[in-house]
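User: Quick sanity check before I run a bigger batch. Here is a single chain. Can you write out its predicted 3D structure?
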Amino acid sequence: MRRPFIALLLAGLAGLPPAASAQQPDGYAMLIVSRDRLALATLCDIGVYLQDELAARLMPGEEAAFNLPPGALSIRVDSISGPGPCKPGMLRPSPQHIDLQAGEVRHYDLALGVGGYYLQASSR
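Assistant: Done. Predicted structure follows.
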């Protein structure tokens, strides 16, 4: 009930006719990456790289949310700090590729497999 009222109010504040603002899609997608305390038995910080740029550092129990433009996205996860086995390896893990749609919310959990860390779609 309140949603149409809020849309009309925002449209009025933006100077747009209500019909025009209601037809425009959301311009961003949301990506949420979570690190469960128990799923990864390591104290290493895990880096989340978007388009090969470090975007977040996740410690056990943390999550990061990103508002991103729609389109193709390259995501890579790897350990980034700590002693011994926490140091990144010589080879970069392969990135995962997803395609985001405007207004979409995607939730992923960090996981560890034979090839290293990766993102798996969350059941949340």
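Residues 1-24 have pLDDT under 50 and may be disordered.

User: Great, the batch can go ahead then.
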